[in-house]
Here is the input.
Amino acid sequence: MRRRNFVVGGLLLVGAAACKKEERCLNCGMKIDRASAWRVEIVTDSGDVAQFDSPRCAFTSWRGGKVRGKTLRAQEYYDRVWKDGRELRFVAGGDVAGPMGPDLVPIDPPRATKFIQDHGADRAYTEDEVTADVLAHLK
Here is the structure.
């Protein structure tokens, strides 16, 4: 009887864990760590919020038409404050890598030049300048 209760209890725990919906990146499927400073959101045309594990994944989905939205929000690299993508610069290259390797680092415009110098980055892009070609050169 004890053994049966143990087995049934274990199965219930496994079933409950399997039912727990984990938040995953809409581009690559990677599990999103809610505490990650790399998380990015896109407010879709329907008003929903699409979650991504990194700026690269968010821009890839957005520019590729997988997600249609008006507003991209990211956390600024130094302050970790959520900002509208139009208020940031996205720095490519250098020694700062995202959760899946080379990525775009969201930086406040006044800090972009110093970041590029300190980290050997290539250049900073505005939200509109991040194109499929820019994304292709990150890999």
Q: What stands out?
A: The chain is about 30% helix and 25% strand.
